[in-house]
Design a protein that fits this description.
The chain is α/β, with parallel strands linked by helices. It has two domains: 163 residues, HAD superfamily/HAD-like (Rossmann fold), CATH 3.40.50; 174 residues, Imidazole glycerol phosphate dehydratase, domain 1 (Ribosomal Protein S5, domain 2), CATH 3.30.230. It is built from nine helices and 15 strands. Helix 1 packs parallel to helix 5 and helix 6 runs parallel beside helix 9. The model has no long low-confidence stretch (mean pLDDT 93).
């Protein structure tokens, strides 16, 4: 079945000038990132349809000749880069006419609703205005509002291509109790600098290792009862992170499942991980200090145990060395590298003879 990406023109494919009419070659500017994004989406099997309101096109207020030249050049540039459009749906009416063919109306796109070869569940609309999102809702497809100075929006073209082409494994978890308020946001298929704030700087540093060396986007915000002690913040952060990993992995099809031996100066950490669905922790290591930074060392194995329980993972950690800072950090980095191996996609098969994980 065909996947269609409906795309607004002005402000989405090409930049929209102050007078809202691209009626000369000098006004033609492409939106940043649009060409590489469309190439990625083309390779992911999407076809493209332009859906555009052009107020009074063909009238004295907007002569057809003023539109045609820049429009043809735009299409030629896209074609030269390997991007073609299946169809152009251009409404020429004025807003006050309130015609069903004008976005957010779907009068021009009704044939896509009747075409059984179109997969509307995997199709989408990209635009820069609320009318584009309403068009998507009227058509029953997903809508993305491109971020612009004029109308706001939350997306850029790279993010849209990632969301639609990569089918990223993401999760947002909010864990709120009388003791803590934790928010975790992960994307296992996108690398990004980790963003962590728990109120415990050394713990933040350890959690950053998980995102950085795990190779995935990780954001953690924690507001805990640190005036009592660190226990609830560390424990609940582990539980929320474990839940996020479990949700993002879904049915676990195609993952590596297992995953790491990591040296850090005099320290050696061996971390074995299995997303088996059966939580179990073995932590073999000792600390001579009560704290490293603001993190009590007794909470290090407790963090890993809570993570195991929430993620449904079996984790075995052995750490040896003389420096407790190195031992804690090597354990977190080893976990991160094990996660990197275990969550990596290697196909579509379920890595289990049981038929379920």
């Amino acid at each position: 079945m065909s996947k269609i990406l409906f795309i607004d023109r002005d402000g989405t494919l090409i930049e929209e000038p102050a007078d809202f009419q691209i009626d000369s070659f000098e006004k033609l500017r492409f939106v940043r990132g649009v060409i590489p994004a469309l190439l990625k989406l083309r390779d992911a099997g999407f076809e493209f349809v332009i859906v555009s309101n052009q107020d009074g096109l063909g009238t004295e207020k907007y002569p057809q000749g003023s539109f045609d030249g820049p429009h043809r050049l735009m299409l030629q540039v896209f074609e030269s880069q390997g991007i073609a459009f299946r169809e152009e749906l251009i409404d020429r009416s004025f807003p006050e006419e309130n015609l069903p063919t004008r976005k957010p109306g779907i009068g021009m796109a009704l044939h896509y609703l009747r075409d059984r070869s179109i997969d509307l569940d995997r199709s989408a609309m990209v635009g820069d205005r609320e009318t584009d999102l309403q068009f998507a809702r009227n058509l029953g497809i997903r809508g993305f509002q491109l971020r612009t100075p004029q109308f706001g929006g939350e997306w850029d073209w790279a993010g849209i291509a990632h969301e639609l082409a990569d089918a990223p494994r993401t999760a947002k978890v909010r864990r709120k109790t009388k003791e803590t308020d934790i928010a975790v946001d992960i994307d296992l298929d996108r690398a990004a600098e980790p963003e962590v704030d728990t109120g415990l700087p050394f713990f933040d540093h350890m959690l950053e290792q998980i995102g950085k060396h795990g190779g995935f986007a990780l954001s953690i915000r924690a507001d805990g009862d640190l005036h009592i002690d660190e226990h609830h913040t560390v424990e609940d952060t582990a539980l929320a992170l474990g839940q996020a990993l479990k949700e993002a992995l879904g049915d676990k099809r195609g993952i590596g499942r297992y995953g790491f031996v990591l040296p850090m100066d005099e320290t050696l950490a061996q971390v074995a991980l299995d997303f088996s669905g059966r939580p179990y922790l073995v932590f073999d290591g000792e600390f001579g200090r009560e704290r490293v930074g603001d993190l009590p060392t007794e909470l290090v194995p407790h963090f890993f145990r809570s993570l195991c329980d929430a993620a449904g993972a079996n984790i075995n950690i052995q750490v040896r060395g003389d420096n407790d800072h190195h031992k804690v950090e090597a354990s977190f980095k080893g976990l991160a590298r094990a996660l990197r191996m275990a969550v990596r996609r290697e196909g579509s098969e379920l890595p289990s003879t049981k038929g379920a994980l």
